[in-house]
Design brief:
The chain has 22 helices and four strands. By secondary structure, the protein is an all-alpha fold. Helix 6 packs across helix 12 and helix 12 packs across helix 13.
Length: 475
């Protein structure tokens, strides 16, 4: 096993890999609950729910989500030997649910997802995707990693209720509720973060995993005493409730999974539903987001694990991209939206993971979660997200590698870093950085020094940012 996964060669141990695999799973297990909430309550153009039922089929979506995540993460570990986990892409699933499925049937929408994955796989196999990655300047890759670090820290603070959007205030976000930290869930998060930082600075092995387990136990005790309940939505909204899972000791540890969404796709149905031009524009939008999210994620993970070469390239880049492309299509085939690489994998890397063994562990846990969903559901996001804050700090340390005196790289790097958390999108940050880089080179008369693929991708990003007016002109 050591030889196959190159554990000793990469400076790791089996114990580190197993801990890292567990931490990554606990940090991103929320997707098993969150994906059904996003996809399950949306209706297609025929007024039907995903799965074909007259009511939301959350259990089937959860089972399909865990199944694809488990299989694809195992494939990433065994085939690409990289500590990177995959699951249904957040943001992409909301786009599929509310912007795509509303125009067609669920089967047609998932057919678009499959097509997007196939297109990306073709780009990988032809070497185009890897070529684009190599064409990106090394310091811009560093900026992407730093931006992702700030982005996942932002995700952690938001998921914990520490930062929230304001309803009608003068600013878009605020501290807690009305500028005050309220509710036991937020304080459970704060205590978890304090515990994690304390363990980390004292160099305790397994600090992240210990923090998640200890904070979950605390959350269960708090909920049993205070009866806080979920945050909820609409008339049932409870600002001081638990954001996702309500921590409580489960009545049962085993549940039988159902896979009603598997195979719910119609490969070319969308072209008949909304026309060729509109279908192609939707595929392009999905593809561009998937294409660059993964590039940024695998670079950030490699940087944190110390696996990048002198050009900022991870080992087995082609294999990583192949698995990610297959995962995009697999999500559509299973009816649970496009699967992609998760930046939360950085939490496992922070625990010491450096090889695909960690991904193998995470994937097996996803598969087990199909039958032990009640156990997974007791871990509140408030207990898991302190890991994201810590990893955000660790990734932020790379910012010193950017030459801030060189405006040709400093301005694109700045835009890349700040726009990821500000727009809640890795793709937007990368796109803004690419466009700014080529534009500055052009106005300074250095366009010849820009790689041709950078010019091509910058033009594509301009089209991406202008997708709505372009669609209005063509339809």
């Amino acid at each position: 096993m050591d030889s196959f996964f190159k554990i000793s060669e990469r400076g790791s141990t089996v114990a580190q890999e197993i801990r890292g695999g567990f931490v990554t799973f606990f940090t991103m297990a929320y997707i098993i609950v969150l994906n059904p909430l996003i996809l399950g309550f949306a209706k297609d153009a025929d007024g039907k729910f995903l799965g074909g039922g007259a009511a939301p089929n959350l259990a089937a979506i959860a089972a399909g989500t865990a199944l694809v995540a488990g299989l694809m993460t195992i494939l990433m570990g065994v085939f690409a030997n990289y500590p990177l986990a995959l699951a249904t892409g957040l943001g992409l699933n909301a786009f599929v649910a509310f912007a795509i499925a509303s125009q067609m049937t669920w089967a047609d929408a998932m057919g678009l997802v499959v097509l997007e994955g196939v297109v990306i796989l073709i780009l990988v196999l032809t070497g185009f995707r890897a070529a684009v990655f190599h064409a990106v300047p090394a310091q811009l890759k560093i900026a992407i990693s730093v931006g992702i670090g700030l982005f996942i820290a932002m995700i952690g603070f938001v998921d914990a209720g520490f930062i929230r959007r304001t309803a009608n205030g003068p600013v878009p976000v605020e501290l807690g509720v009305g500028g005050l930290l309220k509710g036991w869930p937020t304080f459970v998060f704060i205590l978890g973060l304090i515990l994690l930082v304390t363990l980390w600075v004292k160099r305790v092995k397994g600090a992240i995993l210990i923090s998640i387990v200890a904070t979950t136990v605390l959350a269960i005790v708090v909920e049993s005493v205070k009866k806080i309940g979920p945050m909820g939505v609409g008339e049932d909204f409870n600002a001081t409730g638990w954001n996702l899972n309500v921590p409580a000791f489960p009545k049962t540890f085993i549940d039988v999974p159902h896979f009603d969404t598997l195979g719910e796709f119609n490969l070319l149905g969308s072209f008949g539903s909304i026309g060729t031009v509109s279908a192609l524009l939707l595929i392009f939008t999905l593809m561009l987001a998937d294409f660059f999210d993964t590039m940024g994620t695998m670079t950030a993970i490699g940087a944190e694990a110390g696996l990048l070469d002198e050009e900022g390239t991870p080992p087995n880049t082609q294999k990583i991209l192949i698995v990610d492309s297959i995962a995009a299509a697999a999500g559509g085939l299973a009816g649970v939206s496009s699967n992609t690489s998760y930046i939360e994998s950085a939490s496992g890397v922070g625990e010491g993971a450096k090889t695909g063994l960690a991904s193998l562990v995470t994937g097996v846990l996803f598969l087990l979660s199909m039958v032990i969903a009640p156990l997974v559901n007791i871990i509140p996001s408030e207990a898991a997200v302190p890991a994201l804050i810590l990893v955000g700090f660790l990734m932020m340390q790379q910012v010193k590698e950017v030459d801030w005196e060189d405006l040709e790289i400093a301005i694109p790097a700045f835009l890349t870093i700040v726009l990821m958390p500000f727009t809640y999108s890795i793709t937007v940050g990368i796109g803004a950085g690419f466009v700014a880089y080529t534009l500055i080179k052009l106005v300074r008369g250095k366009s010849a020094s820009v790689h041709p693929l950078m010019w091509l991708i910058s033009v594509l990003f301009v089209l991406y940012f202008a997708i709505d007016p372009i669609k209005s002109l063509l339809t």
